[in-house]
Amino acid sequence: MWNWVSDQVFKMLWLNELAGKLVELVGLSLKSRLGSSLQFFIFDTIKIFILLSVLIFTMGVIQSFFPPEKTKVLLGGLKGWKGNILGALLGTITPFCSCSSIPIFIGFTTAGLPLGVTFSFLISSPMVDIASIILLMSFFGVKVALLYVAVGLVLAVVGGTIIDKLGMEDEIQDYIKKMEASAAFVEELAWKDRVRFGLDQVKEVAGKVWPYVIIGVGIGAAIHNWIPQSFIQNVLGEGNPFAVVLATLIGAPIYADIFGVLPIAEALFSKGVPIGTLMAFMMSVTTLSLPSMIMLSKVVKPKLLGVFIGICLVGILMIGFAFNVLPI
Q1: Contacts of 105 (CB under 8 A, 6+ apart)
Q2: In this predicted model, what pLDDT tens digit does every residue of 138-169 receive, in sequence order?
Q3: CA distances from 37 to 165, 240, 295 (A)
């Protein structure tokens, strides 16, 4: 029963077969590069948008129970590793990319929350969320999905703890410190309002991410069918000791969320790229994208920005190398 659920619900093999039939209807062979690429593109695009809509709606409804004001109250009384754990966990139900997490990070900072807690949130929010669990299960299976989420949460907690111990509160930009925290009244929503909020989230997030999904699926299709496997394995395969470093550096300048990254990771996985290298690539893209770092530089001073980037880089590299060695 679980195999059937995994194949038909999460991996949507029925949709892959349907995409293949559509390609054959237009006279293309699935054995040809063009036909196989078109099948990959149709299948992954439709699958991602189905999952995206369902997941964003579900997370939107959950998120309606945790508006920023209530979240500040929940986190305000916690310090140390307990606060970091809760900050990381709350990051799993918030926006899907790092750029949209930064305004919430500013709100937490102006509310006077401990710096370590806010950074645990900032690391966790784009890297690990409920959506990533389901999406990773649909592409790579349960084990990889759970491992990715587990190590992502550990990195968020450890990173926040280190920043807290360093005592870098003075490294927040001065204008952020002068901002006053809002004391908005938290209104209890009716279920119809929560549903409406979930639907609005689908419209808003899908409207922002669809170009990156299309680009990601297109790149994945090209990797899957047009780039020789020998080339991919030479660059990112087990034979290259610097593959994890290279994957991390390649991922950092790219701006995308989990929806845009997974088609590329799936194609690389099919070419024999080890799971640790893929984890490093995905974490680098979602956490250290160049636009996000530019936005964050307007909020924190260079020293704290450098520490944040350094912690994330070291953590991502350690995770990548470790998972390439472990038998998974």
Answers
A1: 118, 121, 122, 299
A2: 777 788 888 888 898 999 999 999 998 898 88
A3: 50, 27, 36
